[in-house]
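Task 17 of the worksheet. Students: predict the tertiary structure of the chain below and write it out as structure tokens. Keep your answer in the requested format; marks are given for formatting as well as content.
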Amino acid sequence: MGRPRLFTRALPVACMVLVALNDHWLKGSGGVPGWLTGKLSDVAGLYFAPLLLAELWLLVWPASCASAAARRVAWMALAVGGGFTAIKTLPEADALYETWLFALLRRPVRNTVDPTDLVALVMLVLSVGTAQRLCRQRAGEGGV
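Model answer:
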């Protein structure tokens, strides 16, 4: 079976672009309140991240069926949700995350420990639901 397209669809790609634009131009511009730009990145990022990570996993290790691909999105959603919860609630996890991103991007990155951001975790459910729908459609089209 060809791999299902999980991330390479309009909505997940648009969410990734939104995070990039938000993080590089809107945050700190004064044109949009800081609380809104923070929530915007959280919501969009939590939607696309599990889909992107699962698609990368499928490139490295193809799934034997569409339902296995959907399960990978669920596993990635659990991992992303756990990491997000940690960096939004634990100062130690936040410091580690900022250090890791600095090493990766070679520029300072600031995350805000803010448990109210956990409301965005609902986007993980939508991400997994999207994957399940896409994989059911793929299976119905003759995919395994």
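Marker's comment: The chain has one domain: 10-140. The first helix runs from residue 10 to 26.
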